[in-house]
């Protein structure tokens, strides 16, 4: 399996407002911005998907430079495992002993050489200039020498051959995933032939998906220049551009939302219900993506309650639902809810999780998460699910959703709940006849290589009494 060819980056360009490091001579704005993102992630635990847009706004990069900065920053963060494996053999000291700024500069330069195939003189010269400005002349010699060796080793395919990795180690390096995530995806997929395509799809930059919440999707497609999404009747997929500029998005009639998340909200609305259908609950609603779609899709007269434990996330939900009638937003812990048992007819539990299915959007998260994160999340998910089931009236339904396919966080959590004698599992796939390949046993599982969405898991449970 080969990686899709990636666009080549250009040479030095003019940037926007100068960085402190650029006082003496102008530096390449795109590469400097990418470096600042890598540095923020390494030194301050910043989130790239928040830091990068902030820097792009502040620096007023031209669209082409902004696109290159994004490709560089996200790509180098995703590829960290492979880049470090290459650099380890070329630096005399262990990588953690290097000045962290030098390590990030080496990663940035090496990424351009092995993955973007930027001409090596451009990649080396611009990185050496950045090193001189950011760290000092002393470090630039090391960066120059190491990057020349990276260039001499060729592209990623040549380097993988040189590193001699086999089996899961090769898969991990070829697809930019830590090995434990490779294993978790294999376990969840259950199909070895699909594993590499799945991981490669998880390593590609995602399209932007929009949701038409309070407007016709055809009008949104026209306004945005996008195409209707294949699965959700409300989805529009965009090839590029800044969705924040769209009048419909600014007015709240549309929003950015992965098509998989749209299907998760749709699942709750499609679940068969007997009797009353008046009260819906979104237990873990922040920042309000699915609650926004639920509010738009509910029949007249349905009251929507949306909660989140974190007050600032509840505030984001309030903003997302601004102007909607019959909604209540609460800052509340779903394990000790302020509402009574059996209050709701339909409940969505979009549980906090490792996010292993949404790695495309958060490039550094794959290296931040560890297997040790899983047990405490499973405990929280199990408690939240038990409490959420208590909030459903007999005959009512609950959708349990995670943006992770990890079996412990998904099937195993649902199995524990389904062992109760007042709960039955409802099959998901029959509710989505238009979505092939969604069944994971009785549950639903979307995949980036099959559906072009995040790897979203969904299960449907009914309270029998
Ligand atoms: C996966 S996110 C929800 C995403 C949201 N449904 C959307 O579509 O925008 C999980 C949320 O659960 C919240 N959360 C974590 N623990 C919680 C708890 N004990 N009770 C309620 N919310 C909790 C987190 O603050 C986070 O906002």
Automatic annotation (TrEMBL):
Keywords, ordered alphabetically: Methyltransferase, RNA-binding, S-adenosyl-L-methionine, Transferase
Stored Gene3D superfamilies: NusB-like, Vaccinia Virus protein VP39
Entry annotated with the keyword S-adenosyl-L-methionine: yes
PROSITE patterns: NOL1_NOP2_SUN, SAM_MT_RSMB_NOP
UniProt xrefs under Pfam families: Methyltr_RsmB-F, NusB
Record: active site: 403
CDD domains: AdoMet_MTases (cd02440)
Chain positions covered by the region annotation Disordered: 1-26
Skewed-composition ranges (Basic residues): 14-24
Chain positions recorded as S-adenosyl-L-methionine binding sites: 284-290, 308, 333, 350
Residue span, SAM-dependent MTase RsmB/NOP-type domain: 181-464
PANTHER family documented for this protein: NOP2 YEAST -RELATED NOL1/NOP2/FMU SUN DOMAIN-CONTAINING, RIBOSOMAL RNA SMALL SUBUNIT METHYLTRANSFERASE B-RELATED
Membership in a protein family: Belongs to the class I-like SAM-binding methyltransferase superfamily. RsmB/NOP family.
Name this polypeptide is given: Transcription antitermination factor NusB
